[in-house]
Amino acid sequence: MTGFEKYIPFVPQPIENRTWPDKQITHAPVWCSVDLRDGNQALIDPMNVEEKLELFHCLVDIGVKEIEVGFPSASDTEYLFLRTLIEDGHIPDDVTIQVLVQARPHLIRRTFQAIEGCKHVIFHFYNSTSTLQRKVVFRTDVEGVKKIAVDAAEMIYEMSQPFLASGMDLRYEYSPESFMGTEMDAADEICAAVLDALHADEAHKVILNLPTTVENCLPNQFADELEYFIRNLPGRERAIISLHPHNDRGTGVATAELGLLAGGERIEATLFGNGERTGNVDMVTLAMNMYTQGIDPELDFSDINKIRDVYEKVTKMRVGERQPYVGKLVFTAFSGSHQDAINKGVQYMAESGTDKWEVPYLPIDPADVGRAYEPIIRINSQSGKGGTAFVMAHNFGFNLPKAMHPEFGAIVQHETDRVGKELLPEAIFQLFRKEYLEVDGPYQLLRHQFHEQMVDGKSHVTFEGTLRHKETVFEVAGEGNGPIDAFFNAIHGQRMDKYTFADYSEHAINTGSDSQAVAYIHLKTKENQDIFGVGIDHNISLASIKGVLCAINRAWWKEKELELAGQAQS
Ligand code: KIV
Ligand code: ZN
Q1: How far apart are the CA of 177 and the centre of ligand 1, in A?
Q2: Cβ–ligand 1 contact at 38 (below 6 Å)
Q3: Which ligand is nearest to the CA of 177?
């Protein structure tokens, strides 16, 4: 048979009065990293001891307190890595290492040898319990897989006694592998028998790790299974319920989240979701999802790029560009309307003084994961004027007045159309510099003098200066209630006075002793067209005069361009 008919649909676990849909995630689970085991076994080139050590320290720095370090009975490298961790003192006192072993006597013995001398250990054993595995792999029934689990549990309990007596903090973890495909009543029966064999009680809880070894159903169906399982587990208080989702349907995160609602207390996950096939559940996404809901995930991802670099180096895997919270493009908005909204959100936050993150299209402040605002907006031909203004403000500290956004936005738009690709922030700044800061005459201020005084509580400014227009040098002088007013009065009667003053704004750029002021001048032409100028200087009065001259010169060049265009047409 070919096609979809050959697949057996998942059979949901019936459950009455499910409670998980009304619950909320309110706190972080216990995190266990399985990067060095499940993640490692799924690499084309598994990590060597040095690489494992580097990742181990990275996990410790993130704040993971339970780390599955490998399968020490499986290979010499795995064994050696654990011994190196123990003998070279790499394991902080507050970190518990976890070792995995199949429920098989000779492997259990070898694993006990490997943990010698370790302070805090979780001894994790597993066997498959699902209907399918029983049928096609083990060719046995529920009793058969239960016996494998209980025999292993009894052996582990016996073998652990001398270690416990010597003061080792040793706990047990059991995984009914492929739990999601096991009948829940059978899973309860097997797990309860394992708890008995391990003498579990409230003071000596055993971790029951319930893997979604292969994701085979909707996350809500998994949550139903889980709630049913926990409700019917004899002596539930003897267990810590741990989840171990894989991601075959791409819903590992949702499965983990609904699983937490349904009673999960602990999560086994990997950084960026590395693991068998489609991977394990992604610890970063899960933790940061909590973070964006105002919950402390108790893991530190404040320098996500550094963590990604370590991960990529040791695993030789690549983090995707759209990977939540870390991908290269996840803080980039291409759409103009998104950019406008981001701009407004940031502006709103500054103006309102809110201490909450209220920026549309950015579920998280990029700075919280050590990402800069810089790559948030890249301007392409779809981007609006707001995006351009945002880049100028956040990348370069120039708060262009709102009325100026259309003018500069159009200049940027024209350039993106001309080059046919997106413009990076630096290219946008070059355009700004060329258009406003490097305007080449024809009017130039050669010399000037301001005299400012207060007369009857009012500011009174006189301006005297020498200007040049092409080859002509001329003196001007004027008075006014401020530098711009005095300057306009000074140029009265010159050809420069055909513009009227519309608006002005200024702010400081750079801080400290080198602080400069930038002034934005808005003039109107006789035809009532807007024209803007920008001036920068240490002296705020001079910055505004430079801004006026910039606007006048730009208007002059525009007129020239129109004249030339007219001549070319006639
Ligand atoms: O996915 C799985 O079932 C596992 C177990 C060994 C815990 O990795
Ligand atoms: Zn797994």
Answers
A1: 6
A2: yes
A3: 1
Residues within 5 Å of ion ligand 2, judged at the Cβ atom: 38
Atom of ligand 1 nearest to the CA of 211: 3
From the CA of 15, how far away is ligand 2's center (Å)? 26
Ligand nearest the Cα atom of residue 281: 2
Highest mean pLDDT among 102-106, 371-375, 425-429: 102-106
Q: What is the model's pTM?
A: 0.78
- Alpha-carbon gap, residue 532 to 535, rounded angstroms: 10
Enter the tokens of residue 230.
């926990």
Alpha helices (H) along 425-500: 425-432, 483-490
Q: Is the CB of 388 under 6 A from ligand 1?
A: no
Contacts made by residues 420-423, CB under 8 angstroms, sequence distance 24+: 421/380, 422/334, 422/378, 422/379, 422/380, 423/378, 423/379, 423/380
Decide the pairing of beta strands 516-524 and 530-537.
Answer: antiparallel
pLDDT in tens, 146-163: 999 999 999 999 999 999
Written in H, E and C, the secondary structure of 373-391 is: CHHHECECCCCCHHHHHHH
pLDDT of residue 375 exceeding 50: no
* Under 8 Å between Cβ of 215 and 252: yes
Distance of CA 342 to the CA centre of its chain: 16
Secondary structure of residue 296 in the 3-state scheme: coil
pLDDT in tens, 264-313: 999 999 999 999 999 999 999 999 999 999 999 999 999 999 999 999 99
pLDDT over 60 at 420, yes or no: yes
Query: Which ligand 1 atom is the nearest neighbour of the CA of 38?
Result: 8
State in Å: Cα 308 to ligand 1 middle: 24
In this predicted structure, the answer to whether residue 413 has a pLDDT above a threshold of 50 is yes
